[in-house]
Design brief:
The complex is a heterodimer of chains A (484) and B (372). With 484 residues, chain A is an alpha/beta fold. Helix content of chain A is 29%, strand content 28%. Chain A has 12 helices and 20 strands. Chain A has an 8-stranded parallel sheet, covered by helices on one side. A 6-stranded parallel barrel of chain A has the order 9-11-14-17-15-12. The termini of chain A are far apart. By secondary structure, chain B is of the alpha/beta class. Chain B has one domain. Helices cover 21% and strands 43% of the residues of chain B. In chain B, α1 packs across α4, α5 packs across α6 and α6 runs antiparallel to α7. The radius of gyration of chain B is 20 Å and the shape is globular. In chain B, 54% of the residues are buried. Classes of the chains: A alpha/beta (484), B alpha/beta (372).
Chain lengths: 484, 372
Amino acid sequence: MSSAAADTKNTVAAIGEKYKYGFVTDIEMEKAPKGLSEDTVRFVSAKKGEPQWMLDWRLGAFRRWGEMKEPNWARVHYPKIDYQNAYYYAAPKNTPLKQSLDEVDPKLLETYKKLGIPLNEQMALAGVAVDAVFDSVSVATTFKDKLNEVGVIFCPISEAIRDYPDLVKQYLGTVVPVTDNFFATLNAAVFTDGTFVYVPKGVRCPMELSTYFRINASETGQFERTLIIADEGSYVSYLEGCTAPKRDENQLHAAVVELVALEGAEIKYSTVQNWYPGDENGLGGIYNFVTKRGDCRGDRSKISWTQVETGSAITWKYPSCILRGDGSVGEFYSIAIANHYQQADTGTKMIHLGKNTRSRIISKGISAGKAQNTYRGQVSVYGKAEDARNFTQCDSLLIGGDCGAHTVPYIESRNPTARIEHEATTSKIADDQLFYCLQRGLGQEEAVALIVNGFCKEVLQQLPMEFAVEAQKLVGISLEGSVG
Amino acid sequence: MSNSSALALPVARREQAASHYRAMGVPHRRVEEWKYSDLARALGEEGFSDGTACWHIGPLPAGVEIFDLAEPNAPEWVRKHLGSLKESVMSAASLAYAQGGVALHVTKVAAGPLALEFSGAGHVRALIVMDAGASLTLQENLAGCDRRNIGVEIVLGEKAQLHHVRIAPVAAGAVQVEEVAMTLAAGAGYHSHYASFGAKLSRLELDIALEGEGAEANLSGVSVLGEDNHADITTRISHAVGLTHSTQLFKKVAGGNSRAIYQGKVSVEKGANGSDSRQTAKALLLSRQAEADLKPELEIFADDVKCAHGAAVGDLDADSLFYLRARGIPETDARALLIHAFLEDAMTGIANADLREQVRGAVNDALGRVSA
């Protein structure tokens, strides 16, 4: 056994020791050895207590990853990532909890206040030690009971691998194959946790599911894996992320989300992403390389993506729909805001395979400061997609003369009965609009927030209520310092 | 004399172009800009055959000078501009390997359309230099069914106006590439129409730089394709300074096994405020095996601009069809009428009435063939 492997084995054993004493949530776990090797993969898998098939799956992914090249076609520029100079199992963090809110970065608190987040939640988000955060356990338990009643499975994916191996085996990697792309393959090798949802036949999930309410969800880690399966005739709405900014030590994030909608099922997936975008000078910030894809496998199924992307230094993300079932529907509603030195390259793919499939894309990109914002999308209609229909609208708004807004749509049709329409515009905030608002006593930044919210309205309307209110405020906050 | 000095260019410049071409290789579908036109595959092992590519020119109107690029002692205007504009892979190839070509110098407002025809196989070059205030209507025709790569450079001085109508008749089995690089000074205008009827692989690629205030480019084109023909129009328009305008309107009808492609990229450089750009591409598929690929792209680095694009692929509008049929017009006639109307939109902009009629005639012939 190599020394690294021995090292890994010892570490795993050591963690096992600690578990014996029942410390589940609060222990400061050791990190996996720095760097990425088969041993790291084995460590992560062992740490999660995974069965052999899962380890084999991960190792297969890792081997393929070694042969793959990092993609460079997106319009984002960042220093080369040294994959060997990073920790792949870093959560939970070793950082000591703060004693009171006084120790928290005042800028962060200021933002919380503007978003209207209750004090207790502020503490939880900023990592302050409190006795009872906000009774998350009882909230979660109530949720669990309700979900159990209707048979919805909603748990961390590591639990699902243990408790529902057949479901996981049947669906994991079937929407985003292990070797789909560089970042997805990396994720397959080292994903640390994520969410698993299964909604049984004919069940309408009684509540919006959100990572926010999942136990142990606070540390989802940098390589998150989400798998949502909506069985025949079911419905589920899933909220990911949170409007509140969180500081995260991990610079590289590579998540994978897979959605499967069977006959007549509907999945609504909403994301608000507000990770650290770096400072005003472009220093720091999260690199967010996400692969999200939904498969409308059954007839008349529907998958709807809604995203509000305001954070991260680099966003590389294309939530897509494969419209396989006849009459299936795909939707993509997106707001991407890039300020300062942020770079966002985001969009969607709608792959029409079945008859009478329909898709709708509404994308609103806002660039300010020195940011670059790209919409990159593809609508493909294949030969058998009789009467397929797509409508795409992507609008860009530029604030200031130093930023960029780009649109790269691919439109491909192989069926004469299909109709595809694409429209795009680029504009700035009109002087007369701004003047009108200022004249009525609004401040410059309030006015910009108001106008931008108007620009984004079509997408904001798609968000679940509780998200929509915060997202509107977030739009304003993200653009602070961009005018004047 | 060796090939490398046959074109009015220093040997070193040709070698530079050759090494550019060698470094990039023949474009294939893994090269993003050639995704829909796999040139390497269409050419196969043989590549572009050598040497017979040539040009023919009609009677020269007053105010147009001509120079044969295969001749020695090129005048100053040729030496200054030949090989000076932006070089794509395939234009590097023609720069490196062309054994001849034509250069035109327009010094004033020239009367009547000037006809220029390319035929034969291999690489050939053309250079058009227009002085300030000059104007010309150029009719470009392609002939024959060969493997040909044309490299064109167009330099428009201040307020120069070039009207360009290009007709590429159907050339089954041919591989035809044409790369056009162009620069426009202040107030200059380029007004063009490209009628393409397909080949085994046909690609017209334009790289247009609007480098002076008030410069404008108005592009339009129709494609009518049938059988297993392919026609690709790829444009790049760069608004390098402010107050520049561009419009693009492309209409495509694809039947049989054909493939119609439009890729258009509009870039607005930093500070190019007041730029105005409009881009429309529409395709109509007439058969189950036909394919249309559209990629209208925007790249914008300035905030005070108006840029819009639209693209659509589909069938004829059912309501319009119903309206005509309700008035007793048989379905086939009604369809033909609507297809004509669809294409007519992109042809009305051709300023010269004779050329407009020629394009219409070519379109009618092609429609007869394709929709039959």
